[in-house]
Design brief:
Length: 279
Amino acid sequence: MLIIGYQGVPGSYSEIGVIDYFGEDHEYKSYDSFKEMIADLASQKIDYCLLPVENSTTGAITRALDLVKQYPVFMVGECYVKVNHCLITLPGVQFTDIKTVYSHPEALKQCDEFFEKHDHIHKVAYLDTAKSVAHIKSLNDPLIGAIASKRAAQLYNLQILMENMQDNQYNTTRFAVLSHKEIYKAEADAISVYLVTDHISGSLFKVIKVFSDYQVNMLKIESRPIPDKPFNYGFYIDFEGNLRTQVTQEVIEQLEEHCVYLKVMGNYKQQHYDSLSDN
């Protein structure tokens, strides 16, 4: 039986993702922090973990990507979880009763239009979406609600007053499936790298030109400050390819020629948005 980590508690979107990807028949371990989870993966205390790396509304989760860069872990898969933010309350509560809503800061931000429309409702940032549900249950106050997943409401036997509260109905979180082993499957079709170029004119252009020269599709590029070099930047790049092919190997070799540092963070099979279901 595999031991698989996720950040959060049962009912969180991370737990939904880990069950969607791996199924029910494994041991799941919840963590309070990304760093603790990645450290346990690197030391082989767990077999895999699920790490949120991007949201379709708010963009890259850079603190998570930085951990993949820093630790000897590898992206071996990806999982998309469609966000369905629900307004959750104690049983029997009416919408007009609600005065305060708890949730994770990012979830609150993703529901800005709701709070603009209902400006009498006070929003309070909390540790986690699912933990906010446990918190309001413990408070037992009919004036208080939480924003979290449908699964969280079911686990805590609370009422759902509203679904799909998020501003963007296509709001989706992308999770990286991580392992302490370099696993490159034959069907893998996406590669993630982190690279640093010389801090001189034209350096990034030379990197991007490699993809153009080999007609390789870049999926994403994200700049990130280098902590010990103020106002210098590294780049996270996702592109299509499989490390078993000659073309991809040549692309990596060419990238290395134009970089002062390059780490291949993983080669994995992409998931397609059309395959998602509501949670």
